[in-house]
Write a structure and sequence with these properties.
- With about 400 residues, the chain is an alpha/beta fold.
- The protein is built from 15 helices and 14 strands.
- Helices cover about 40% and strands about 15% of the residues.
- Helix 1 crosses helix 3 and helix 8 crosses helix 11.
- The longest helix is centred in the middle third of the chain and has 31 residues.
- It folds into two domains: about 190 residues, NAD(P)-binding Rossmann-like Domain (Rossmann fold); about 160 residues, Rossmann fold (3-Layer(aba) Sandwich).
- Strands 3-2-1-4-5-6-7-8 form an eight-stranded mixed β-sheet, sandwiched between helices. Strands 11-10-9-12-13-14 form a six-stranded parallel β-sheet.
- The protein starts with a strand and ends with a strand.
- The protein binds nicotinamide-adenine-dinucleotide (NAD).
- Nicotinamide-adenine-dinucleotide (NAD) binds next to helix 4.
Length: about 400
């Protein structure tokens, strides 16, 4: 039986995927409310195909509990934020979960860390937490790192089709865990050592952050001298070896806006490009805010309460607003002591910010300048409702008379 610890955006779909492919699974989370919701037959977030996967897993016998289980395999998928001051990974959730596992697990168990960690984290924090219980790693307890690559919005497809990396001390243990993932994963699964697996995951997200920062920097340069960044990128990308990403209002979520900081924190004198890239991306919500003030001035809009931000989530068509550019922009605006802007997002039902709307038409009726922060399908399908508005389109998705860009 596999005990999946942490049933959030990554742990839940992983547990469901294993269970629906014939593996006996118990999902454990210390959040009682979350476990009660799952036990009442409901999923805890919106994701394409998740409800169907949940139904299959329940039929196959998955159980959810707040208790850790006595078993031979644990998959730990708990948060790994970064320390805002040192920029280093904050491994406290992983260490706490591993300590709880150690209190109950039998000798011979394998602990798989799925959480994203910086290279060396497992050596520095996880091994001591295991050894503190008197266990000998490699004899009493086996350690594996299996970082996850899936993207919210396409999780179910990517769980089935992405390639994966497994890092293990012992090749045979790595191969056994590879078999476990191969129960559902149709991609290639590479087995390597733990430190390499740790580094690859962080490097993958850093690669993406640096490339996004390049596009964002181009947007700033082009704005400074009134050039069309989208036309320039379009033409550049016709070069056979150039593939520039699109600029945007910033980066959010718990991967690309977080993981690259681990390298800056651990290698401050070496990770220069990464440091600047992260600062560039983090500066985008402020850049958008300045654009808002410029556009208001140009259009004679004096009342900030007539400005509305479309989208609160960190990317399109998901309900996750952690670290989102809209939240960053609102925070920055609050620091400038300005009245909060109006906000609307079709995916966010709870009230998470002031001046939040829950209906597109009501939001638009109270707004003269609409800022498209997130390119949800809903707004793409309702472009006709923006024809009499001033629009700041941060994603270059609309073809309207009065549209501004980054
Ligand atoms: N969200 C993503 O898109 C994504 C993608 C790839 C990798 N990751 C990585 O996966 C890991 C998990 O991220 P997430 O987005 O699923 O986090 P999350 O916050 O959505 O979920 C984590 C869950 O763990 C539970 N938890 C925390 N400590 C616990 C403990 N000691 N015992 C039991 N339950 C505990 C929390 O209650 C929560 O439900 C992170 O390292 C993240 O960087 C995330």
């Amino acid at each position: 039986m596999i005990n999946v610890i942490g049933l959030g955006y990554i742990g839940l779909p992983t547990a469901l995927m294993l269970a629906s492919h014939g593996v006996e699974v118990v999902g454990t989370d210390y959040n009682k409310e979350l476990v009660a919701t799952l036990n009442s037959g409901k999923t805890t977030f919106k994701e394409d195909g998740l409800d169907e996967l949940f139904a299959d897993a329940v039929k196959a016998g998955i159980r959810f509990s707040t208790e850790y289980q006595k078993t031979d395999t644990y998959v730990v998928s708990v948060p790994t934020p970064y320390d805002k001051f040192s920029k280093k990974v904050d491994a406290c959730y992983v260490v706490a979960a591993v300590k709880s596992v150690m209190e109950i697990c039998p000798k011979g168990a394998t602990v798989v860390i799925e959480s994203t960690v910086s290279p060396g984290t497992i050596d520095k924090y996880v091994r001591p937490a295991i050894e503190a219980n008197g266990f000998v790693i490699g004899k009493d307890i086996h350690l594996v790192h299996a970082p996850e690559r899936i993207i919210p919005g396409n999780m179910v497809y990517e769980l089935l089709h992405n390639n994966r990396t497994i890092g293990a001390d012992d090749k045979a243990i790595g191969e056994r865990i590879k078999e476990m993932y191969a129960s559902f994963c149709q991609g290639d699964i590479v087995v390597t050592d733990i430190r390499t697996a740790e580094m690859t995951k962080v490097v993958e997200n850093t690669f993406r952050a640096v490339n996004i920062a390049f596009a964002n920097e181009l947007a700033k340069i082009c704005r400074h001298d009134n050039m069309d960044v989208y036309e320039i990128i379009r033409i550049c990308n016709m070069h056979p070896r150039v593939n520039i990403l699109q600029p945007g209002p910033g980066v959010g979520g718990h991967c690309i806006s977080v993981d690259p900081w681990f390298l800056v924190g651990d290698y401050p004198s070496l990770a220069k490009v990464i440091d600047e890239s992260m600062k560039t991306n983090d500066g985008m919500p402020d850049f958008v805010l300045n654009r808002i003030y410029e556009i208001m001035k140009e259009n004679g809009i004096t009342d900030v309460s007539r400005v509305g931000l479309y989208g609160l989530t960190y990317k399109e068509n998901v309900d996750d607003c952690r670290e989102s550019p809209t939240l960053q922009l609102l925070e920055s605006q609050e620091r400038h002591l300005a009245a909060p802007l109006k906000v609307y997002d079709p995916f966010i039902e709870a009230d998470v910010v002031p001046n939040q709307y829950h209906d597109l038409d009501a939001f638009l009726a109270d707004t003269d300048l609409v800022v498209i922060m997130v390119k949800h399908t809903e707004i793409r399908e309702n472009m006709d409702k923006l024809t009499d508005k001033v629009v700041l389109d941060c994603h270059n998705i609309c073809d309207l008379p009065k549209v501004y860009h980054l």
